[in-house]
Structures are given as structure tokens and as C-alpha cells.
Automatic annotation (TrEMBL):
GO terms for biological process: long-chain fatty-acyl-CoA metabolic process; suberin biosynthetic process. Belongs to the fatty acyl-CoA reductase family. Residues 12-257 form the Thioester reductase (TE) domain. GO terms for molecular function: alcohol-forming long-chain fatty acyl-CoA reductase activity; alcohol-forming very long-chain fatty acyl-CoA reductase activity. CDD domains: FAR-N_SDR_e, FAR_C. This is Fatty acyl-CoA reductase. It catalyses: a long-chain fatty acyl-CoA + 2 NADPH + 2 H(+) = a long-chain primary fatty alcohol + 2 NADP(+) + CoA. Residues 332-430 form the Fatty acyl-CoA reductase C-terminal domain. It holds the Pfam family NAD_binding_4. It is an enzyme of class 1 (oxidoreductase).
Length: 430
């Protein structure tokens, strides 16, 4: 990890002594949070952790929207349960911080409060949500698939579909937010008198300032759309132009975790939820992101496989599913079908052209399927507790300014044009 670009500033500060510095501060432990005792095999090491650990921060998760249901349950739901069990055995424990996501609220509109979920509470009011039942269901489905000699690909597809099916049954749009919500339920119900912070960030984007601007690893949510557009794959998209894209830079999320740890340690029995985002204090509309993307990739075009600049145009935004389906049928589906017939008549002479068009259509349709719930999102995330935390930090800690997580300080145009999109190009598309 310390060989990553993220640690460049520390390398400049410590030089050849960085490895020694890190070894004095950090002890990496191999484990698996989907197992009891976090999968730590060495008894002595586990006992040492129980003696010495005073704060537990759980950031582990799978963030794929359509993850296999067994994997998502193991990491996002059962993982927090095992984290709580571990934390209860820590003799010096002052606080457990569980990092969730603001989108546990699903597709609800209006103001989403900083309140916990009750065990078994479904977003749509459907009765019968039970984590144990969900675990049993997965095991039964997996056994059925193995009994019928299903291939690994067939098992993967079936378990992905099961996750989406179960999520939608109880009112969540995808497997990720459904399993994260159940993880919150388990943490809240099992914590006992343990001090607990549940931190719910919104869409996490590249670093704003620390350790330097623009660092990002991998494509997340809106970044998939930005890259698809910059590569010329996205000529239209579905969404409400007035919907809010709630983004928050990664270093602000980290800062909020650190300040929450300082403010809540040893607060016996207390559970506090912080929603860390920008939709209340500094909202960004979908149309603004669209305009920024056009301006950036027009002045800084990406290159195609032949090294030629990709020319982008303004994306046609379709504001309803009906208009989107009409557009896709006329613009792509019918020509694709015609090309398929021509291809068959001319002995696959146009196979590469057909494959390219088919790939583009599937790319757009997959993005729409995954992100549709958020493209018409009408909610904003209340951050009263988070604002109180910001104010308390300013009053109590002289170094509070070094741990800024106030979205009002962000100039979105400067951030997206000069920090975030250049960071994507440099660190993800390099």
C-alpha cells in the first residue's frame, strides 16, 4: 500500500526512513471480516488485539451495486456483526465507528434524517425482513445450483439476480445498499452499551486537498459516466436535469471520521449517526455535472486506441424512461438489428462494426440499469449531527481547520475542472 502514489507526500517527508516509520505505527493483520474472530488464525495475535485496541473503524465492504448476494451478505451484513463481536472483547474499547452509506435510504425523496434503522425495518413497509432468513435463502439457492451442476458463470449470474430480487422486495434498489442497511441493523441491535458512530457518506470522489488534490483509485458511480462520456461511448443519458448529485471528496470523509472519533470516544451507550455529504449545504445538479464534462473533455480530449483525440458532443439527456427507450430503439436497436441481417447476408463482413455497436448499446443499458434509481433521485441528506460535529470541533480543537469536512468550502467548478476529472485521467486511466 505505501508504494501507491497516495503516500507520495510521506515519502518526500521521510525518504528512506518511511518504512521504519510505518512499521512503528502500523501492524497489518491478515483476516476476513466475514468470519468469526475476523478470520485471524493466530491466537496470540488476537489476544493482543483484544488487550490493546481502543477504537475500531470498520470500512470494509463490497461496493458493487450488483454483487453476488452471498458475497455482499458476507461482507456488508455479517461482517459488521463479527466486527461488533470483536469490539466487545477489546478491554480498552472507547468507540466503534461503522462506515455505511447515505444511500441506505434507497430511492426515498425529501429530507433523509440521521436516524438508525430498526431490526427488520423495510423501506417499503414489507414485513418479514430477517437477516437469518436471507442467509438461509442464499445457502439453499447455492446448494440447488451446485446440485444441478451449474457452471461458475451460471452461479454468479443466479446469485446476482437473487440479490437484486431480495433488495427490491423490501424497497431497496440494489444489493449493495440493501446489505449495507442490514449491516447497520445488526450493529445497532448487537452493540449493547458500546459507544457507536455510524457514518454515512454520500458519493465519495477524489481528494480535495489531502494528502494532495485529485487522488482516486478505481471508478465509482458518477466517474463511470464521466469516463464513458470522455471515451465517446455515451451520447445520451437518462436522468432528471434538476436532480442533485450528492458528492463529497474522500479526504473530507476521512477527516469526518477522525473528528467523530475524537468527539465520541467513551460516550457510553450513545449511538450517533453522521451523514456526510453536500446536498444540504452545497448542492450540485445533474445538469451542472453534464456541462462540466462537456467543457473538460472538449478542451482536454482523451485519445482512442489509434491515438486520435476523441471528439465529444453534448449529451442528449432524456428525462423519462419512455423517451429513453424510444431513443435507444430508433437510434441503436433498429440499426443494430438491420446490421445483424446484413452481416448474415454478407458472410460476417461487418462483424467488427456489429460487435462495436452492440458493445456500446450494452454499456449504456447496463449503466442505466445500475444507476437509474439515482438519476431521478429527489432526496437530500440531513446533516444536523454532522454540522454540530463541525461546530464542536472548531470550539474544542485548535487543529480543527486541518481536518476540514465542510462542503461549503468547495468550489465545485474548480474542483471538477482542475482536480477531480484530471485526477481520474491521471490515476485511473493512466
Amino acid at each position: 500500500m505505501i508504494n501507491k502514489e497516495l503516500f507520495r507526500v510521506m515519502k518526500e517527508k521521510w525518504g528512506g526512513g518511511l518504512n521504519t516509520f510505518i512499521s512503528e505505527k502500523v501492524v497489518p493483520v491478515a483476516g476476513d471480516i466475514s468470519c468469526e474472530d475476523l478470520g485471524v488464525k493466530e491466537t496470540g495475535l488476537m489476544e493482543e488485539m483484544w488487550r490493546e485496541v481502543d477504537v475500531v473503524v470498520n470500512l470494509a465492504a463490497t461496493t458493487n451495486f450488483d454483487e453476488r448476494y452471498d458475497i455482499a451478505l458476507g461482507l456488508n451484513t455479517m461482517g459488521p456483526k463479527y466486527i461488533v463481536n470483536f469490539a466487545k472483547k477489546c478491554a480498552k474499547l472507547k468507540l466503534l465507528v461503522h462506515v455505511s452509506t447515505a444511500y441506505v435510504w434507497g430511492e426515498k425523496g425529501g429530507l433523509m434524517p440521521e436516524t438508525p434503522f430498526r431490526m427488520g425495518e423495510a423501506l417499503n413497509g414489507t414485513l418479514g425482513l430477517d437477516v437469518d432468513v436471507e442467509m438461509k435463502l442464499v445457502q439453499e439457492r447455492l446448494q440447488q445450483l451446485e446440485d444441478t451442476k451449474a457452471t461458475e458463470r451460471e452461479i454468479k449470474i443466479a446469485l446476482k439476480e437473487l440479490g437484486i430480487e431480495r433488495a427490491r422486495k423490501y424497497g431497496w434498489p440494489n444489493t449493495y445498499v440493501f446489505t449495507k442497511a442490514m449491516g447497520e441493523m445488526l450493529v445497532g441491535s448487537l452493540k449493547g452499551d458500546m459507544p457507536l458512530v455510524i457514518l454515512r457518506p454520500t458519493i465519495i470522489t477524489s481528494t480535495y486537498k489531502e494528502p494532495f488534490p485529485g487522488w482516486v483509485e478505481g471508478l465509482r458511480t458518477i466517474d463511470s459516466l464521466a469516463v464513458g462520456y470522455g471515451k465517446g461511448r455515451l451520447t445520451c443519458f437518462l436522468g432528471d436535469p434538476d436532480s442533485i448529485i450528492d458528492a463529497i471528496p474522500a479526504d473530507m470523509v476521512v477527516n469526518s471520521i477522525i473528528v467523530a472519533m475524537a468527539a465520541n470516544a467513551s460516550q457510553s451507550c450513545q449511538t450517533t449517526i453522521y451523514q456526510v455529504g453536500s446536498s444540504v449545504k452545497n448542492p450540485v445538479k445533474f445538469t451542472y455535472i453534464q456541462d462540466i464534462g462537456y467543457r473538460y473533455f472538449t478542451s482536454h480530449p482523451l485519445s482512442d486506441k489509434q491515438g486520435k483525440p476523441v471528439i465529444v458532443g453534448k449529451v442528449k439527456v432524456l428525462s423519462t424512461m419512455a423517451s429513453f427507450n424510444r431513443y435507444m430503439s430508433i437510434r441503436y436497436m433498429l440499426p443494430l438489428k438491420g446490421l445483424e441481417l446484413v452481416n448474415a447476408a454478407f458472410c460476417q463482413q461487418f462483424r467488427s462494426l456489429h460487435s462495436e455497436l452492440d458493445r456500446k448499446v450494452k454499456f449504456v443499458m447496463r449503466l442505466v440499469e445500475l444507476y437509474r434509481p439515482y438519476l431521478f433521485f429527489e432526496g437530500i441528506f440531513d446533516d444536523i449531527n454532522t454540522e454540530k460535529l463541525r461546530l464542536a470541533a472548531k470550539c474544542s480543537y485548535h487543529e480543527a481547520d486541518e481536518f476540514c469536512f465542510d462542503p461549503e468550502t468547495i468550489d465545485w467548478e474548480d474542483y471538477f475542472m482542475n482536480i477531480h476529472i484530471p485526477g481520474l485521467v491521471k490515476y485511473v486511466l493512466k
